[in-house]
Each structure stands twice: as C-alpha cells, then as structure tokens.
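**User:**
Make up any protein.

**Assistant:**
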Amino acid sequence: MTEALFTPYSAGNIDLKNRVVMAPLTRNRADNDTAEVNELHVEYYRQRAGAGLIITEAAQISPEGKGYLQTPGIHTKAQAEAWKKVTDAVHAEGGKIVIQLWHVGRISHVSLQPGGAAPVAPSAITAEAKTFTAEGFVDTSAPRALEADELPRIVADYVNATRLAQEAGFDGVEVHGANGYLLDQFLKTGSNMRSDAYGGSVENRARLLLEVLEAVTEAWHGGNVGLRLSPFSNVNGISDANPQETFAYLIPKLNRFNLAYLHMIEGTTGGSRDLADGEDLDALRALYTRTFMVNNGYDRAMALEAVDSGSTDLVAFGRPFISNPDLVERLRSGAELNRLDSKTLYGGGAEGLTDYPTLSERAAETV
C-alpha cells in the first residue's frame, strides 16, 4: 500500500504527483547585476523535479526588494526569459514549479540597494539581523519608513512579478509573507509602529498583505497562488506582541482567495518547533479551509504521520532537498540521506549545488 505522502494531490489548479514539496532555499548563485538565473539553476531544479512541487528560492519583485548578494529577480523580461529555461527543464522531467515572490523590506544593506539608498520598511526601525553582501555577512542597514502613497507601487510590483512568472512558464507563485521580510514586517507589532491605515490595529497591520493577495489573485487565479506565513518565528529580528491574535485575525481572511495552498512554518524558521504559552498552531490550522502545507524540521516518520493523520495535505522539506536531489525516492524507500555540506550553501558554483549524488549514481560507483 502506498503511503498518502506519495499519492497525487491537487493544490488548487496545480496537480501534483506526490505531496512532498521542495521548500524555497536561497543559494546566492544568480548574476548580481542582472539578477538573472543561469545554467546552474536549470540543472539544480531539474535534478529535483521528483518533488510533487518545487518552490524556487525567493526572487525579488523589484531592485528595492533585494536583500542579499546574488539573489534572483522576477521583475524584468530578461529575468523571466532566464527562468523559462528552468521551468522548461522541470516540466520536461514531469515536475511542477512555482516561484516565491519576495520583498525583503528592512532586511537589506545600502550596498545592495539602487543608488545606495536606505532599505524600506513599515517603520524606521533597524532589524537586529544580518544579510549577505560582497563583504560577507554584515549587519542590516537602517531603513526608512515607506510613505502611504508608496504602497500601491509595492502592490503593483507584486502584480508585475506575477505576470512575468506566468510568461516564464511557472505553474504558480508563492507570496512570501514570512521570516521577517516586508509583508511580515507590516503584520507584526515589533516592526510596525505606524499610525496610519497600515499600522496599529491588527486590521491595519494585515492590510498590505491582503491588498497584495487581492491584486495577485486578480492577475492569476487564486488556485495558482500560494502564501507562506511564519506566525511564531523570530528570525530576522521580527516579533509580535500577540502572534496568536494577529494570525487568528488574518488566516480566516485568506479563505476567500481560494489559494493553491497556505504554507505554514511551525515554530522558529530552521530552528525549534517549540511554541510559547498561548501559541497554538492547531487552532490556527482549524481556521483555514483549503490546502495546508507544513514546514520545519520534518523527517520521514513525521511527514508520513502528518499526512496520514490528515493534519496536513503537503509537507515541505528544505535542507534535505539540497543534499538529496532524489529526496522523494529516498523517503519512499527509507534510504539513507546524503550529508549536507554547510560550507557550500551560499554562493559559489556547482559544488554543493548540483554535485550531490542520487541513489542510482551511488550504486553505479560501487559496481
């Protein structure tokens, strides 16, 4: 009998061959000047097309949205054309792929911003965080607060990126509303001290994210749009006075968009799954009526149980997909996983990106 994790599933308008998802993973190998992906990306994603769904590394929706060296973009025609080679390669292998749409907000550095400008944020509060520049990991720069009349431009940038993603042949887009980046910065009280219609009450703090979803799902059917949230994560210096209240307000509002999925990070991104008193993921899960995706530290046993129990529809794996291009096959058979080389995660070339062996390649080596 086939475990539910390995059975087909329809996430909105996207038909998946299994319920194993490759999570978005920043690898810092795009052209730093043009933000275009290259042949390394084509091979990297092609190798991992066994996933039911690939979510690409985050791609900035504008030059202003960039926060790290050598991250890809999806705001020019040339970038879309470069991504088209990736989507063609994944589709040729029978895979499905969506692109994560990213505006980092204050998690940036003046050296990465057009004209050396200050990064933008809901409020002029510097994040206690680092970013990756030509000088290595450095403290983020002090941001400036966005004016209210600039926010329609940000929404329009998400729409432009969505349309370019369609041209690039993606099966959908994922709006990045997590991990202390711009939309999360607006949501959470620790980074949003505004006194206008986008700050203060939870209704106001959620306004920009909901406006982005409204516009993106008008540009492309909601069944081709996902959303990533991290209610209880404190990465990138993000905090909220009452995250349970914030997300208990937001999540029911998402049902009307008929999204392909809601991608939820459990606990601290890439860290502990433990929650503080008063934090309840099950209660938040119960507020959402459509496809649900979990993420954070899942292994084979956890993933099998989560899908079998019905607590989730899809399970996203991050770092295991970096070192195991054939992760789905390994999960299905219970095979040992390749060890991850943490030194090659960010920047560089093929080493640590496309040179991890599959099970069949390992077997051939021993013959």
Notes: The chain has one domain: 4-366. The chain has twelve helices and 15 strands. The mean pLDDT is 96.
